[in-house]
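Field reference: sequence -> structure
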Amino acid sequence: MVTENLSQTTHMMIRPVDTDVFTDKFQIEGRLDPEATGVFRHLTLRINFMLNNADVDVPSFFSVGADKTPPEYTLETTWFSIDQFEGFPKIIGHFGRGNLHVKTDKGVIIEGVIFGGPCEEQAFIASGVWISS
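Structure field:
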């Protein structure tokens, strides 16, 4: 019998680590309840934007609601297994014109509306680390 992996959806947010106009460090945060038990795991993905294996600054941006207290999680996040939120993922994506699309090498997809960032859409690569609590 073949079983299909059914995707799950949650919401996350992204914001810069510092308050500079240009930065290379962002963090994506969210909460997951993988077993639908009502017990959530808080996840943070700290990422560095890279170009030719060196950190590169990009125009600062954040997702809708990330600047509020407490922050709102508005980026749609699609995943299959809690194991996808471990380790040091490679990240590819594009951002600009008010949108963000991120995909990790383990298949987590994060996308939605952002404020700030470049006026034109730009592709990027990044590296990161998942932190769970």
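Note: The longest strand covers residues 41-51.
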